[in-house]
């Protein structure tokens, strides 16, 4: 095992207040596209920053809902990878370890991590756009995605699917995610910031560190004097803040430092 990995494993063994902070990269090896990867990134294919906005949903609800249904289908067909499982191992080994994710998939939960803090919401928590913003109950349109998918398992050019109507008030149902220009859930942001400020070890995994205010969280840990370990195969904006920078993928590196 190389010295950086050994040092990271040593820090994890002695740490008492651990935060694991994840981004889209931890789900990449489960086959869930990230936002910015050149090869598979949603940015390059669906202009995610444009579609993930209230304006896009208002302008074309069928396209935006269809995009989220496609993404939900991708996640439903995905399995947690060894990176997610290693995070769960950390939550079992370090009492009080906190998992904060920017991701909207449920792979941390399906890997067995308890109490995952979602800064940007979830693909699986749709809600109505009405004032009540109550959780929506509606037939799951994802079930019919399979027969429309091309052999590659992906729709040819995106699919328009009319969003369902809320059974409680008849308003449109929207994805339960935080769009660009929308405020993050206050409780999630507070949990993330307070955990980072109290941490002695902060693991940042698979994030470009470009989306705010989430990108402030690692910086809070640095200011608090925590040791920061980054796991990412590419350079990021967080490189300057890291105690140890492990250039590698989540599914390979995390199991090695948790072993
Ligand atoms: C807000 C849900 C205000 C939707 C998402 C300050 C400066 C600049 C801009 C801003 C700022 N403050 C606010 C902004 C604007 C904006 C913003 O940050 N824009 C960015 C583009 C600059 N922020 C907002 O709009 C936020 N809202 O500030 O509101 C406000 C305040 C009060 C009242 C009203 C309003 C809301 C931001 C949330 C947006 N929603 N997701 C959806 O998913 O559809 S963000 C989206 O990006 C995902 O959640 C994703 O997780 C997140 C962050 O990206 P990453 O996770 O880092 O993913 P990325 O693709 O970038 O990188 C992947 C990384 O993984 C790469 O580094 C890659 O190398 C690595 N990787 C690849 N494979 C692997 C790997 N790593 C490990 N293993 C591998 N195998």
UniProtKB/TrEMBL annotation:
Residues where Zn(2+) binds: 128, 166
Active site: 120 (proton acceptor)
InterPro entries linked to this entry: DHS-like_NAD/FAD-binding_dom (IPR029035), NAD-dep_sirtuin_deacylases (IPR050134), Sirtuin (IPR003000), Sirtuin_cat_small_dom_sf (IPR026591), Sirtuin_class_III (IPR027546), Ssirtuin_cat_dom (IPR026590)
Region (Disordered): 135-159
Gene Ontology cellular-component terms listed: cytoplasm
Keywords, alphabetical: Cytoplasm, Metal-binding, NAD, Transferase, Zinc
Location in or out of the cell: Cytoplasm
Cofactors required: Zn(2+)
Biased composition (Basic and acidic residues): 146-159
Entry binding sites for NAD(+): 102-105, 206-208, 232-234, 250
Domain Deacetylase sirtuin-type: 1-259
EC number in record: 2.3.1.286
Pfam families: SIR2
Sample GO molecular function, one term: zinc ion binding
Enzymatic reactions: N(6)-acetyl-L-lysyl-[protein] + NAD(+) + H2O = 2''-O-acetyl-ADP-D-ribose + nicotinamide + L-lysyl-[protein]; N(6)-succinyl-L-lysyl-[protein] + NAD(+) + H2O = 2''-O-succinyl-ADP-D-ribose + nicotinamide + L-lysyl-[protein]
Binding, substrate: 68, 71
The record's free-text note on cofactor binding: Binds 1 zinc ion per subunit.
Domain of life: Bacteria
Keyword Mitochondrion: no
Known function: NAD-dependent lysine deacetylase and desuccinylase that specifically removes acetyl and succinyl groups on target proteins. Modulates the activities of several proteins which are inactive in their acylated form.
Domain notes: 2 residues (Tyr-68 and Arg-71) present in a large hydrophobic pocket are probably involved in substrate specificity. They are important for desuccinylation activity, but dispensable for deacetylation activity.
Family statement drawn from the similarity comment of this UniProt entry: Belongs to the sirtuin family. Class III subfamily.
Protein name, entry field: NAD-dependent protein deacylase
Gene source species: Virgisporangium aurantiacum
Gene: cobB1
């Amino acid at each position: 095992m190389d010295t950086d990995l050994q040092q990271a494993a040593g820090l994890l063994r002695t740490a008492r207040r651990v935060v694991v902070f994840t981004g889209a990269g931890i789900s990449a090896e489960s086959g869930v596209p990230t936002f910015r990867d050149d090869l598979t990134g949603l940015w390059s294919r669906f202009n995610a920053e444009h579609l993930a906005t209230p304006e896009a949903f208002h302008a074309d609800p069928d396209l935006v809902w269809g995009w989220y249904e496609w993404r939900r289908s991708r996640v439903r067909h995905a399995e947690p990878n060894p990176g997610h499982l290693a995070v769960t191992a950390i939550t079992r080994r370090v009492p009080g370890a906190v998992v904060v994710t920017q991701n909207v998939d449920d792979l941390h939960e399906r890997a067995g991590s308890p109490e995952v803090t979602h800064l940007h919401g979830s693909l699986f928590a749709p809600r109505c756009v009405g004032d009540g913003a109550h959780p929506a109950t509606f037939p799951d349109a994802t079930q019919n995605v399979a027969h429309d998918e091309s052999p590659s398992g992906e729709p040819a050019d995106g699919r328009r699917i009319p969003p369902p109507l809320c059974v409680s008030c008849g308003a449109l149902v929207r994805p339960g995610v935080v769009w660009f220009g929308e405020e993050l859930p206050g409780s999630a942001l507070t949990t993330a910031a307070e955990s980072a400020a109290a941490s002695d070890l902060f693991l940042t995994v698979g994030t470009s560190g470009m989306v705010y205010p989430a990108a402030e969280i690692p910086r809070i840990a640095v200011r608090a004097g925590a040791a920061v370990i980054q796991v990412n195969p590419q350079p990021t904006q967080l490189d300057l803040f890291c105690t140890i920078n492990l250039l590698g993928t989540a599914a390979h590196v995390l199991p090695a430092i948790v072993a």
